[in-house]
């Protein structure tokens, strides 16, 4: 009787490798290629939900076709999922979905906070953004532990945050960023040009500069004008401070004109009737305005007026200022026509 011949070892290894490759391709296809997602979907994961609950919801929305296979994919990505709002594009595989959930690859939104806005204006802007959630007034159990915000406490910037971030959490992020800036200023020696001494005074003057000009190149010159007036014990006579007083801290006349009679309003923020700086900032300022105050231009200017081209004309004397003012009045007449 003849003995059966065993397969040569090399041939046996080749057959095993072949089957391993086939199985690997099948698994790659099942987990990493095959998709039941037929459209772009926004998927929300609430805090505290289990993997089983998420898998059941995914299957209900036809984003996966097998709960056990999805759980395997989750285990393969560390075994956890993170809460948040996710954009799941058409054709996304189960493995990629599990990977997104494991790494917290949540949908994001970009919030732009322009420089020179007041807190009231910033809150209006945040309330108008549908990618954020919640209210803007702090209180017990909210995302904003510090309730007494004043203008100058928030740092205007471009913020990229998770879609669904609470508005109070974003306000707190802005507050912390400004607080960090103050801490760095104090750490480096708390230098401020005479007669400024405190961070509040620096930011208060910066807020006036910020409201007077949007041109970065002009800010150090405008800062020098106000510093010169403070040193000479002159009233600052800054229109934006009157607007702040008239609008109860909104900082926007809503299209109404600022009239001469408005300059007489009895208010501590009115720099036409009061000497020195206002009690606090009149807006939230960016780095350019702060740097302009900390490093002002070296000038003897005491006056400035708009030049009709988006900038200003500066003068050392009142007589020159009146000449510049007359030119500006003529420009305004032409513009009004």
Automatic annotation (TrEMBL):
<keyword id="KW-0456">Lyase</keyword>
<keyword id="KW-0812">Transmembrane</keyword>
<dbReference type="InterPro" id="IPR003770">
    <property type="entry name" value="MLTG-like"/>
</dbReference>
<feature type="transmembrane region" description="Helical">
    <location>
        <begin position="12"/>
        <end position="32"/>
    </location>
</feature>
<protein>
    <recommendedName>
        <fullName>Endolytic murein transglycosylase</fullName>
        <ecNumber>4.2.2.29</ecNumber>
    </recommendedName>
</protein>
<dbReference type="GO" id="GO:0008932">
    <property type="term" value="F:lytic endotransglycosylase activity"/>
</dbReference>
<keyword id="KW-0997">Cell inner membrane</keyword>
<dbReference type="GO" id="GO:0071555">
    <property type="term" value="P:cell wall organization"/>
</dbReference>
<keyword id="KW-0472">Membrane</keyword>
<keyword id="KW-1003">Cell membrane</keyword>
<keyword id="KW-0961">Cell wall biogenesis/degradation</keyword>
<keyword id="KW-1133">Transmembrane helix</keyword>
<dbReference type="GO" id="GO:0005886">
    <property type="term" value="C:plasma membrane"/>
</dbReference>
<comment type="similarity">
    <text>Belongs to the transglycosylase MltG family.</text>
</comment>
<comment type="function">
    <text>Functions as a peptidoglycan terminase that cleaves nascent peptidoglycan strands endolytically to terminate their elongation.</text>
</comment>
<dbReference type="Pfam" id="PF02618">
    <property type="entry name" value="YceG"/>
</dbReference>
<feature type="site" description="Important for catalytic activity">
    <location>
        <position position="212"/>
    </location>
</feature>
<dbReference type="GO" id="GO:0009252">
    <property type="term" value="P:peptidoglycan biosynthetic process"/>
</dbReference>
């Amino acid at each position: 009787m003849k003995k059966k011949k065993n397969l040569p070892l090399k041939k046996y290894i080749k057959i095993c490798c072949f089957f391993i490759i086939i199985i690997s391709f099948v698994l790659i296809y099942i987990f990493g290629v095959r998709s039941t997602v037929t459209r772009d979907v926004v998927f929300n994961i609430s805090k505290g939900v289990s993997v089983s609950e998420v898998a059941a919801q995914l299957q209900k929305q036809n984003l996966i076709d097998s709960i056990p296979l999805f759980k395997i994919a989750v285990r393969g990505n560390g075994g956890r999922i993170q809460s948040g709002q996710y954009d799941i594009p058409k054709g996304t595989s189960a493995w990629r979905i599990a990977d997104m959930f494991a790494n917290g690859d949540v949908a994001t939104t970009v919030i732009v906070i322009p420089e020179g806005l007041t807190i009231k204006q910033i809150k209006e802007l945040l309330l108008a953004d549908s990618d954020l959630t919640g209210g803007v007034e702090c209180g017990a159990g909210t995302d904003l532990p510090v309730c007494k915000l004043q203008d100058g406490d928030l740092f205007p910037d471009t913020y990229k945050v998770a879609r669904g971030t609470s508005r109070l959490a974003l306000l707190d992020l802005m507050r912390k960023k400004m607080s960090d800036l103050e801490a760095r200023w104090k750490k480096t020696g708390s230098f401020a040009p005479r007669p400024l001494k405190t961070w509040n005074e620096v930011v208060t003057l910066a807020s006036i500069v910020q409201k007077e000009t949007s041109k970065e190149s002009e800010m150090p010159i405008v800062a020098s004008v106000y510093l010169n007036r403070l040193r000479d014990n002159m009233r600052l006579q800054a229109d934006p401070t009157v607007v702040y007083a008239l609008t109860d801290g909104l900082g926007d006349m809503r299209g109404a004109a600022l009239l001469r009679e408005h300059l007489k309003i009895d208010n501590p923020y009115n720099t036409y009737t009061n000497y020195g700086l206002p009690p606090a900032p009149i807006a939230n300022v960016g780095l350019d305005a702060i740097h302009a105050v900390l490093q002002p231009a070296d000038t003897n200017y005491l006056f400035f007026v708009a030049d009709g081209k988006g900038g200003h004309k500066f003068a050392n004397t009142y007589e020159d200022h009146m000449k510049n003012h007359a030119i500006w009045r003529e420009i305004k007449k032409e513009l009004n026509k």
